[in-house]
């Protein structure tokens, strides 16, 4: 009991630092997980929505009674916002300069008649091209000539395609007049549905797979927003777990390893194993408290996401929680090893921060594991952080191919490796402690 009280006094002196690191870093990890989940949902849309620009259509051929300008206006209403601009040089320049209109489409006078004549001549002369035979529709925009915007370029391409279809209708004899040709193409554009765009994504092996593949669709439906938040939060908390637990355990172990404390412990009537068990209990308590705080914060963020905690597979959640606890206890063992060397607080700060940052960067928590080069992966697998992140993702089906069913065998092997790291840290720490005792 006295050992526990002494350890608690040591922790209480450093409690503001430990709590600040733990809560601050965990909250940041949770907010990052929420943002990543929202980005994932936004990029999961399989239909491309082009940017919507403002277009002004000036029909100088309307006095002839033709409806070329009206047809183009009706066609662009599907993909652009139509604005009204007067047919004067000053009004056109003002609209473009102020951004009121991104693009001004000018139908020149006599366009319909010239269009009909050019289409018939093009049908009679096979060598005539559209650019040489067809009258031109004028475009005006405030874009840089060397780098036009995607919105205006898309609209110009759509208008060219619309006019080209009308020309084909006239040249093939399907329509006899310009108005009929534009009306026919306009009706066809309204009736045709927008074709689906096939989106490709990379699977866990780095190969491309269609988004409408059965496994991909099953994976996206099985992976809820709350599961993504929980995954992102628990994996991103690797740095906060290492920093908080290792610091706390190192403070306690180092305090008990000072020469003055060692002499007092040897003179004490309490058995040595009881003192060791007391210190061990306090160190494990640090790891369990930090694990609980991180877990509660991750669950809180997951509950606030779409679907809530009910959308998370209970088996996957339980496996992830066990892996998180195993990693926390492994970090306790790492702090125990570090404390056996009796290093100063600044030295411990440098070592723990270096190990924590390296584990976070190379574990796959901030960069997917399957995106890392082979050389980096070989080094990263030497650190326990890699297997912690792998265990968390295996709980939900694997990184990059998350599914409703957890990968039990892969999860068990990754978690077992964390236990192996714990045993190694304990054994090495006991060996270092024995050497120090002999020297003193």
UniProtKB/TrEMBL annotation:
Organism: Pseudoscardovia radai
GO cellular component: plasma membrane
PANTHER family assigned: MEMBRANE COMPONENT OF ABC TRANSPORTER YHHJ-RELATED (PTHR30294), MULTIDRUG ABC TRANSPORTER PERMEASE YBHS-RELATED (PTHR30294:SF29)
Membrane-spanning segments: 228-256, 277-303, 315-338, 350-367, 411-432
Keyword set includes Cell membrane: yes
Keyword Lyase attached: no
Topology versus the membrane: Multi-pass membrane protein
Residues annotated as domain ABC-2 type transporter transmembrane: 20-430
Lineage: Bacteria, Bacillati, Actinomycetota, Actinomycetes, Bifidobacteriales
Highest taxon of the lineage: Bacteria
Primary site of residence: membrane
Disordered, as annotated region: 197-220
Ranges in coiled-coil conformation: none
Localization per record: Cell membrane
Name the UniProt record assigns to this protein: ABC-2 family transporter protein
An example Gene Ontology molecular-function term: ABC-type transporter activity
Keyword tags: Cell membrane, Membrane, Transmembrane, Transmembrane helix
Signal peptide interval: none
InterPro entries documented for this protein: ABC-2_transporter_component, ABC2_TM
């Amino acid at each position: 009991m006295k050992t526990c009280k002494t350890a608690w006094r040591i922790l209480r002196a450093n409690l503001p630092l430990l709590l600040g690191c733990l809560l601050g870093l965990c909250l940041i990890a949770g907010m990052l997980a929420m943002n990543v989940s929202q980005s994932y949902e936004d990029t999961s849309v399989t239909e491309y929505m082009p940017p919507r620009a403002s277009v002004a259509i000036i029909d100088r051929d309307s006095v002839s009674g033709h409806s070329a300008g009206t047809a183009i206006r009706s066609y662009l209403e599907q993909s652009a916002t139509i604005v009204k601009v007067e047919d004067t040089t000053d009004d056109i320049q003002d609209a473009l300069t102020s951004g009121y209109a991104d693009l001004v489409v000018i139908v020149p006078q006599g366009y319909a008649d010239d269009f009909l004549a050019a289409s018939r001549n093009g049908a009679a002369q096979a060598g005539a091209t559209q650019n040489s035979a067809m009258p031109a529709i004028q475009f005006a925009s405030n874009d840089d000539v060397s780098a036009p915007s995607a919105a205006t370029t898309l609209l110009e391409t759509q208008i060219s395609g619309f006019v080209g279809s009308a020309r084909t209708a006239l040249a093939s004899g399907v329509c006899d007049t310009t108005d009929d040709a534009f009306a026919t193409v306009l009706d066809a554009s309204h009736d045709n549905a927008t074709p689906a765009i096939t989106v490709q994504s990379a699977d866990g092996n780095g190969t491309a797979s269609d988004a409408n593949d059965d496994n991909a669709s099953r994976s996206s439906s099985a992976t809820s927003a709350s599961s993504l938040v929980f995954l992102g939060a628990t994996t991103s908390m690797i740095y906060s777990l290492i920093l908080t637990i290792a610091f706390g355990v190192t403070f306690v172990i180092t305090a008990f390893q000072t020469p003055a404390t060692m002499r007092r412990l040897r003179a004490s009537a309490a058995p040595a194993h009881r003192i060791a068990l007391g210190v061990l209990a306090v160190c494990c308590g640090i790891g369990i408290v930090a694990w609980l705080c991180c877990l509660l914060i991750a669950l809180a963020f997951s509950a606030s996401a779409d679907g809530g905690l009910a959308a998370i597979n209970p088996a996957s959640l339980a496996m992830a929680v066990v892996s998180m606890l195993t990693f926390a206890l492994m970090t306790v063992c790492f702090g125990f090893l570090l404390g056996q060397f009796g290093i100063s607080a600044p030295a411990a700060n440098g070592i723990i921060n270096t190990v924590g940052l390296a584990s976070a960067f190379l574990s796959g928590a901030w960069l997917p594991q399957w995106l890392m080069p082979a050389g980096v992966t070989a080094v990263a697998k030497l650190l326990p952080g890699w297997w912690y992140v792998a265990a968390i993702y295996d709980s939900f089906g694997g990184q990059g191919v998350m599914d409703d069913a957890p990968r039990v065998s892969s999860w068990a092997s990754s978690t077992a490796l964390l236990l192996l790291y714990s045993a190694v840290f304990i054994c090495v720490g006991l060996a270092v402690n024995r050497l120090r005792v002999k020297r003193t």
